[in-house]
Amino acid sequence: xxxxxxxxxxxSVLRGLRLLGPGGQISWVDADDDGRxxxxxxxxxxxxxxxxxxxxxxxxxxxxxxxxxxxxxxxITHAHGGWLHLDAAFGMWAAASPALRPRLNGLxxxxxxxxxxxxxxxxxxxxxxxxxxxxxxxxxxxxxxADYLHTTEREGRDPMDHRVEISQRAxxxxxxxxLHHLGHDGIATMIERxxxxxxxxxxxxxxxxxxxxxAPVTLNQVLLHVGDEIDTRQMVDTLNSSGSCWVxxxxxxxxxAVRVSVSNWQSxxxxxxxxxxxxxxxxxPTGGAPLEQTRTPxx
Length: 299
Hints:
The protein is built from 7 helices and 10 strands. It is α/β, with parallel strands linked by helices. It has a 6-stranded mixed sheet with strand order 2-1-3-4-5-6. Helix 2 (39-48) runs parallel beside helix 3 and helix 5 packs across helix 7 (269-282). It is globular, with a radius of gyration of 21 Å. The two termini are 19 Å apart. The model has no long low-confidence stretch (mean pLDDT 90).
């Protein structure tokens, strides 16, 4: 079996594959400058893949929020008899918005998806979801039976037959409460507001000397280089100690980057203004050295 993953695949996907067994059968698919899986390279690797095929795509990368060309990679995967799994940890929720849904074109053609509630829906951290378009395959993989479990109460669809853990508290209750309270329109409004806030942060900062937007704002992620490498890393510490917002450091094409992820349900235009003003006020006065746009080779 061959497993094909994108150049910017989240580490949790790699960990999951190691736990399942095929961690040593991974091949890397090139990505474009915006972090999207290269469909042409995927097609080449899929054509050479012996035996079974699994392709892992992304709907909302952790670094920049980019979305793979889902319709293309679905067509390629299924043409070779493969299974397409999508890491849609936060990006899947954008499908609730009519304005953002086209950016996820092809999402529905996957065979399975992973998604979180703790990012965009602000649930507690241990609220992860696995969805499968092939219920029979899922049941065959994780379902089980034992004589002592054959009781009159165990009728119909049993959650234990559709998840890895047998004993589990009601983690879904918080998610259900949020979905019930906000409804489809409420979630769409929250998602659109966060994405608009991310675009506003980028708009306010990219015209400033020494501040560079490293990737397009696809959803709610903003990737910035502020001054030089040292300035960029120091900016993360400065922002986080200020209490104005919380950001993280990452590396993009070999360069340090400030990762601004707009995911709190309260974040709006005021948050954009505050964050942008603070970064402007604390950036390096010289603007730092020129940034060479270099690609990091695929793993």
